[in-house]
Specification:
The protein is mostly helical. The chain has one domain (10-192, 202-400): Up-down Bundle (Growth Hormone, Chain: A), CATH 1.20.1250.20. The chain has helices at residues 4-7, 12-34, 40-46, 51-54, 56-79, 81-99, 105-133, 136-150, 152-187, 205-208, 211-216, 219-249, 254-274, 281-306, 309-337, 342-363, 369-393. Helix 5 (56-79) runs antiparallel to helix 16. It is globular, with a radius of gyration of 20 Å.
Length: 402
């Protein structure tokens, strides 16, 4: 008979609540960027600035998410997860509401950075809290379940964003995001603190930041974290270029764009769950890396030489499926490797992704967006494949074998 106490430390009903709430937190991080993607072309006209400048809104949000996680990881290791969560959600609400009254693009970019700081708490705690409670395949199962369900966040965010853009423009989207954050604060009241006092960092807060050097020296952790980071960088390249390719270049509407993005994101969710079918989790990353590289090469040919929407869309699907597989492996193996310093480990995993994401977001808008996107896709897929190969060469942990 299954030991439900071991599998579900606070009972099965709480596990269901926990997964649902962590999906909400993780989805919130996606909504912060994905929900206003359909309005990027509109915002270039509103602020009267070039495409590459308006895409800095994505970059500033990602920088805030990355830097926020870096600071909040050790803070949460010392003071617990729940206080950090509630504080950062409040910061986001302030940043979102103030951004609506931006007098120019520079003020808006500053608000986006504040929003990123605020959203970072929930986003990295969605990885940290499971690592506080679970390990091994149970951690992998929980992380993949959260990732798969959360695959519908980037699916629904652009759809909702497209509807709101038609109804109320870009400002309405930030009102909705502020409301979403307020809802997460209220829904999080029953959340139990996952880091019990005896497991918290006991020294001075500044000393808690010394966990980063030890994590960075852990080669296995770094490889897994970079694997997730490069894959996330490719996803951000796709997300930041897609509004201009689908809407401006191919002429689809904001709502059409949201529907395409929503349909595509389902393949990320399917890939995330497929990774769990592998007896040894690392194999999923290797196969996902090769599949990603193959179809990225095809997509580059489409963007350079064919210039056809349906060819572009069709080839994206296996690329996104492969990314879903890699996300599950990178997240799970990195957090399992660094779970004794879960806050810091989660922060570095998140920072890795947002460094790549913040770098590629403006690059895809330089010159001919089809060609620049193709080049960025190729670079990120090559890096992801190299790290997938490095991951495969590391001997698997016994508790990660089915």
């Amino acid at each position: 008979m299954e030991n439900t106490t071991a599998t579900y430390p606070h009972g099965k009903n709480y596990y269901i609540f926990l997964v649902a709430y962590l999906v909400g937190l993780s989805a919130f991080g996606s909504f912060v960027n994905d929900m206003y993607l359909p309005t990027l072309p509109e915002m270039t006209r509103y602020f009267q600035c070039p495409v590459s400048v308006i895409q800095l809104g994505l970059t500033m949000g990602m920088l805030g998410l990355g830097i926020g996680q870096l600071i909040l990881g050790p803070v949460s290791d010392k003071y617990g997860r729940k206080p950090v969560l509630m504080t950062t959600m409040t910061i986001f609400i302030i940043g979102a509401v103030v951004s609506i009254f931006s007098p120019d693009i520079h003020f808006f970019l500053g608000c986006r950075f504040v929003q990123g700081i605020g959203a970072s708490g929930g986003y990295f705690l969605a990885r940290t809290i499971p690592a506080d409670i679970f390990s091994g395949r149970q951690l992998a199962k929980t992380m993949a379940l959260i990732g798969a369900i959360n695959g519908f966040a980037p699916a629904s965010a652009p759809v909702l964003g497209g509807i709101l853009a038609v109804a109320d423009g870009w400002k309405g989207i930030f009102y909705v995001l502020a409301g979403f954050a307020a809802l997460l604060i209220c829904a999080g009241l029953p959340l139990k603190e996952s880091l019990i006092p005896q497991n918290r960092f006991k020294g001075h807060l500044l000393e808690a930041f010394r966990e980063y050097p030890s994590l960075i020296k852990n080669k296995r952790f770094v490889i897994h974290a970079l694997l997730k980071g490069t894959a996330l960088g490719l996803l951000f390249a796709y997300c930041s270029s897609a509004p201009f390719i689908i809407q401006d270049h191919f002429g689809w509407s904001e709502l059409d764009f949201g529907l395409f993005m929503g349909f595509n994101a389902i393949f990320i969710a399917c890939g995330a769950m497929t990774a769990l079918k592998f007896d040894i989790l690392k194999k999923a990353a290797f196969i996902g890396g090769w599949t990603l590289m193959l179809f990225t090469a095809v997509e580059m040919g489409v963007l350079f030489f064919i210039d056809d929407f349906w060819a572009y869309e069709f080839v994206l699907l296996p690329m996104l499926f492969s990314l879903g597989m890699i996300f599950t492996v990178g997240n799970t193996l990195a957090m399992n490797e660094g779970r004794t310093n879960a806050g810091g480990a989660s922060a570095l995993v998140g920072l890795s992704g947002y460094i790549f994401g913040a770098t590629v977001a403006p690059l895809v808008g330089i010159g001919n967006i089809l060609h620049s996107t193709a080049i960025v896709f190729g670079i990120m897929a090559s890096m992801t494949l190299a790290l997938a190969y490095a991951t495969k060469r590391i001997s698997p942990d016994p508790d990660m074998i089915k």
